């Protein structure tokens, strides 16, 4: 048996199978490198946040999947105080957004992150958990971020 004999069906299946495995191998390597670049970006932004986090600041935190929760947050020396805005209580702190971003890298079909230009925290994370499912999108949002002097 000759491996490269085009008249032998087993040779053709062997060659085609090898080509398919080869193509999928490069696809997997490419996917992992893109995924690791996103993880590195999140880690870089976390370091920026940890380095620049003010002692006193406030913001409005919103998150939602099936319904939206909101709260006003005041952070003083690392202690967060929450004021409920709507009927659902939310205790979302900025560090939780980094956790959500890392979870999204692993489990979400699609994720978009917008970072704060100065402090590095995620201002907005949009997640689509599964492409083929409607209404499974979630978001996390930090708005009205203010440093208190």
Structure description:
The protein has 149 residues and is α+β, with helices and mostly antiparallel strands. It has one domain (9-147). The protein contains two helices and six strands. The protein has helices at 9-52, 94-107; strands at residues 56-64, 68-76, 79-84, 110-115, 122-128, 137-147. Strands 3-2-1-6-5-4 form a six-stranded antiparallel beta sheet, with helices on one face. β1 and β2 form a beta hairpin. The radius of gyration is 23 Å and the shape is elongated. The N and C termini lie far apart (81 Å). The mean pLDDT is 82.
Count the E strands.
Answer: 6
Helical segment count:
2
* Oligomeric state of shown chains: single chain
Major sheet characteristics: 6 strands, antiparallel
Rounded to the nearest angstrom, the distance between the terminal CA atoms is 81 Å
Mind telling me the C-alpha Rg? 23 Å
What is the overall shape? elongated
Which strand-content bin applies to the residues? 25-35%
Question: What does the average pLDDT come to?
Answer: 82
- Number of individual domains: 1
Give the strand order, joined by hyphens, for the main sheet.
3-2-1-6-5-4
Task: Give the proportion of residues in helices.
Answer: 25-40%
Order of helices and strands: HEEEHEEE
Structural class of the helices, strands and pairings? Answer: alpha+beta
Identify low-pLDDT runs: none
């Amino acid at each position: 048996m000759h491996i490269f004999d085009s008249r032998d069906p087993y040779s053709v299946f062997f060659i085609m199978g090898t080509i398919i495995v080869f193509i999928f191998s490069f696809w997997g390597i490419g996917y992992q490198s893109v995924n690791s670049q996103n993880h590195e970006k999140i880690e870089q932004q976390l370091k920026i946040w940890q380095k620049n986090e003010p002692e006193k600041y406030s913001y409005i935190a919103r998150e939602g999947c099936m319904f939206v929760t909101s709260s006003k947050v005041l952070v003083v020396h690392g202690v967060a105080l929450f004021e409920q805005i709507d009927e659902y209580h939310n205790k979302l702190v900025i560090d939780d957004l980094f956790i959500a971003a890392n979870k999204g890298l692993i489990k979400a079909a699609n994720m978009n992150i917008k970072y704060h230009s100065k402090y590095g925290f995620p201002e907005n994370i949009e997640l689509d958990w599964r492409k083929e499912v409607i209404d499974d999108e979630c978001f996390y949002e930090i708005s009205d971020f203010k440093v208190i002097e």
